[in-house]
Amino acid sequence: MIRRLAIAFTALFLLAVFAAFWAGPGTLERYTNRITPHAPWPLSPEAERLHADLLVGDLHADTLLWHRDPLKRSDRGHVDVPRLLEGNVAIQIFPAVTKSPFGQNYESNSGDSDMITFLAALQGWPKATRDSLKERALYQAARLHIAEQQAPERLRIVKTRGDLDAVLEARALGEPVLAALLATEGSHALDGEVAAVAELHNAGFRMMGLHHFFDNRLGGSLHGSEKGGLTPFGREVVEEMNRRGVLIDVAHSSPAVVKEVLEISERPIVVSHTGLQSVCPTPRNLDDALLQNIAAQGGLIGIGFWDGAVCDTTPAGIARAIDRAIEIVGVRHVALGSDWDGATEVQIDASELPALTQALLDQGLEEKEIRAVMGENLVRHLRENLPSLEPAAP
């Protein structure tokens, strides 16, 4: 009986692989990155006026993982430059996803399997990305650099405080340009080498997550098998990131890792996309007390837009989570962390962010609080933590 079940599951898997190759990556993404059907979100004149005057920034969109041109408006996924600019987004952080296990869940995963290998093959990634997670990160960075070269008037990669200020000054003069920052979704992208921090930094990466859905050489994931603390290698990597001015993201790290990073990091840390246990008690979210500790050391917490983070993905539901986050950690430490294009289903894409501004007004937030959360906190955090100069040539 067990043997027949194994044969049946294998046959179904092979059929799914064949169907994916036949249908192409577009069909796969339409299934994976969905927008819940909804009527147009109503906007008051006050919300329209306020949103048009905001500095808007988001900490996390996995757009570079998918086989489409970020410069062109797409009929799939949640993010592209046209939709970001339509939503008045000034800053978008783009992490490179390099490994994710089959059957991933919030409770427990091993690192023995990898969906990104399959997706990379399906999308025709270079041969070098087959066996190297670092090469996968570098390839995704190269795609963003190509987009910048093709349309520097609409997209500029930010590596320093000066880069950021230049984009914001251009926007203040009415230029529709996006500041883009590169990040990693987990430091398994280092391929087990501390020296790779410098290599990725030189390629433009300015924020690095420590974990994704599985334990790695740095230590335990929030969704791993062991959920342990930092390893000696992990501590060495954190110290190297501090030395190079790389922002550290603990969005998928175990509580034990987060506590140890808070102990040894000389810089504030980021939780790029999360929710609060007191709002949405799923295993995806760190507990409120730990978020308070992160904020107490100057950290920034990005509130997500998907079900596992907020439990209610309407603009009103996201606004309630943001309001609670302000209550828990203080308004200076709350930002947007959508997880757009991260195999998530949401109810607002990048072009629909004015609906969130409306929901925050409806929630009773003051204008200065809305300005802070929608982007000013992110701008301040980047200005305080980005390097002032480009790294020296290797």
What is the topology?
Elements: H1 2-23, H2 25-32, E1 34-35, H3 45-52, E2 56-58, H4 81-86, E3 89-96, H5 115-122, H6 133-150, E4 155-157, H7 161-172, E5 178-184, H8 195-202, E6 205-209, H9 232-244, E7 247-249, H10 255-264, E8 270-274, H11 288-296, E9 300-303, H12 307-310, H13 315-329, E10 334-336, E11 345-346, H14 354-363, H15 367-385
Parallel strand pairs: 1-11, 2-3, 3-5, 4-5, 5-6, 6-7, 8-9, 9-10
Helix pairs in contact: 3-14, 13-14
> How much beta, percentage-wise?
5-15%
Largest sheet at a glance? 6 strands, parallel
Annotation field: number of helices: 15
Could you name the CATH topology? TIM Barrel
Unreliable segments (pLDDT under 50, ≥5 consecutive)?
1-15
H/E topology pattern:
HHEHEHEHHEHEHEHEHEHEHHEEHH
Outline type: globular
C-alpha-based Rg, rounded:
20 Å
Number of strands: 11
Architecture, CATH level 2?
Alpha-Beta Barrel
The CA-CA distance between the termini, in Å, is: 59 Å
**Estimated structural class:** alpha/beta
Q: Which oligomeric form is depicted?
A: single chain
